[in-house]
Fold this protein.
Amino acid sequence: MDISAVRGNRLHDSSGTRSCKERPAHATRQTLNLHVPFRIEKRGGRKAIIPPQDDTTTTPSAPEDNQTIIKGLGRAFRWKRVLDSGEFQTLKELAAHENISPSYMTRVMRLTLLAPDIVEDILNNRAHDLTLSDLLNPFALDWAKQRHDFAL
């Protein structure tokens, strides 16, 4: 087969049909290796890329790091509103409707008992050390004790 022209990424022979051969050897590719120092941490149940400490760039203050906690808070307050409205008579009925275990729903609904300033800190991404699993464990009902226990 006589190769007479190169068009795009394919070679064409003199009859105009395409050949499956690659580009000629003179069309070389170069590899560039780039080293970007960072570390990966779990924040709010998600992995976050953390830049080096000497990096002067700022990280976004959006609550991406706390999305899991925020989602849990949203569910807790929504479930509380649904129960308060009388749409469901018991937590067990609501859990069955939501297709989750009543035990998990009870633990998530406990988030409605958090101190308002702790909820505000979570929503404003100022509670970096908290995770949803920390908040699903039993905690004190006293707001001052919560602030102390969660170190906020």
